[in-house]
Amino acid sequence: MTSDSGRERILDVATRLFAALGYDGTSTRLIAEAAGLNIATVAYHVGGKRDLYLAVMERAHQAERAALETAVADLRRDAPPGGAGGAALLGLVDRYVDFCAANPAIPALWMHRWLSDAADVAHLESLYVRPLMDLVVDAVRDVVDDGVDVEYAVWTVIWATHGFARGGVLDTDGRRRGMDDAAELARFRAHLHRLVASALGLPGDAR
């Protein structure tokens, strides 16, 4: 095993465990055992538990940033300014939903932080979340009419998507259905389109 492949293997396992159990509920020993390694090997490749968590969150951020930068670039290319870019804005929403569906560990990691997990690692929101929020909010603000609370609209998409990714909805039998259920994902997407169209004052045909 090369050093790079060993590190990636550990980070993959750590991501899965931090997403499932949270930082506070995961130990370095648990990560090592799940990776089939000893603690000394984990420490050699990545460091201690805090180092592991920071590496996991950085890797998650890099993936999310790459996806959003591409999506925002496409929005700026496709949407005319002044409120006429409804379809492109809903396309941006779809790109975010698709990213979370393809990377369910990432919304799970942030949901744990919303519940005060890893409270001693307090700088990640300002380091990672705020710049991405500014990126998206600035791009959307250039497209919609003045007077729309764009920041709250963007937060609403995040809250709803992370909540659905993590908790889903209950069917008539009390079973949870989420992003791995194509029908429920389509239903959630349609609902989010209506919500965003209303919040941003998009024309009816954009929905």
TrEMBL record:
Residues 4-64 form the HTH tetR-type domain. PROSITE patterns: HTH_TETR_2. Signal peptide: none annotated. The keyword DNA-binding applies. Residues 27-46 bind DNA. InterPro entries: Homeodomain-like_sf, HTH-type_TetR-like_transc_reg, HTH_TetR, Tet_transcr_reg_TetR-rel_C_sf. Keywords: DNA-binding, Transcription, Transcription regulation. It holds the Pfam family TetR_N. SUPFAM superfamilies: Homeodomain-like, Tetracyclin repressor-like, C-terminal domain. This is TetR/AcrR family transcriptional regulator. It comes from Actinomadura sediminis. The lineage of its organism: Bacteria, Bacillati, Actinomycetota, Actinomycetes, Streptosporangiales.
